[in-house]
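Hey, resending since the last one bounced:
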Amino acid sequence: MTMIQDLLDDKTMDFLRDRFGIIGESDIMRDIMLQLLKVAPTDLTVLITGETGTGKEVFAHAIHGLSERATQPFISVNCGAIPETLLESELFGHERGAFTGAVEQRKGFFEVAHKGTIFLDEIGEMPIATQVKLLRILESGEFSRIGSSEVRKVNVRVITATNRDMEYEVRNGRFRQDLYFRLNSFQLRLPPLRKHSDDIPLLAEYYASRIAKKNRFSYRGFTDEAMTFLISLSWPGNIRELRNVIETVTTLEHGKQITESMLSQQIRDHGGNHGTIPSEHSIMISSQGYQSASQLPQESDIVFRTLLEMKNELIEIKRAMAAIFEKTAQLEMQAQRAAEQSITEFPVISSHALPFPDEYSPDTMFNLEEMEKQLIQTALTKYAGNRRMAAKVLGISERTLYRKITDYQLSDSIS
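The structure tokens again:
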């Protein structure tokens, strides 16, 4: 038994499961639970990171529920779901007549959460102007409603969450560095389900038995083949996707023993074409169900592989762009030092093209705005103008995508 297992007893794990729905016996999940138990009783600001569907809001609830603020309000705000023009008003409130449509005075979420906890999901979507006010409230607890000069004070614990690389956002000027440091007092990194697939049987049993109890019918479990099938899938939607599949199958089958064919049918009909396939990519999805890739026509194989690899390729492109930004910063510093020393060997940096060392040819010089524009256009073309899918594969919110489409004047080119 490992040290992690020694420190977390079964009684505590049962409590976390029954009270908050936090489940897992793998070492990686045990470690996360220990971090949760360590930070929850404090008043530290917590940044929860992880892919979509890993349970960030579940852990936010647990942090609040295990703290001294547990009897006070818990307010959850999705920063990406509220239009930029309304977000500041929603968070900090407004006075009557402060703007068109403000027909009455309104308290913001921070006032409502006084003495409790506020959970800001998708914090990376917060506009810079609002970030300034958030930093102020984190530093001093002070804020003013829109349309008022009166300074108010609240006592609120702040928990934030994101599926973005916040350091990358800071480097590119989309998120304030001082705010990031303040939010990152303690970071809880939630792993994707594929990193602890040995917890899938526990999760599947938990969600199936819970939905059966809710619907008041008996539950007969999974066949061995069904459980092996679940473990073999990559689950790009993580725990949320697994839960949706299990709850839907259990409900439709009215508590019957769940088989591999039931699961295969559900995934094929309601999610299989979005990437829930075996992690080894050795099995492909077709209109007839799961079958070996070698049995599919070559054209279908190419299409599926392209869809599978597209997201990874975009991630690599983003990383490459980050490296370009860093290289540009280094060259700017070199050019500045050279100018101070009256040395003319460094080229002037253009606002439209990035300079590179001599070993790079002019053909390799990139325009970052053009690269971003091309990425967005490629994604929109790939998904036939489906902005939701394009935003998902680009790793940005739909709101951000809409803004980029307007900025780059891509609207007319979308069918």
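Strands lie at 46-49, 74-78, 117-121, 142-143, 152-153, 157-162, 186-189, 283-286, 289-292.

Sorry for the duplicate.
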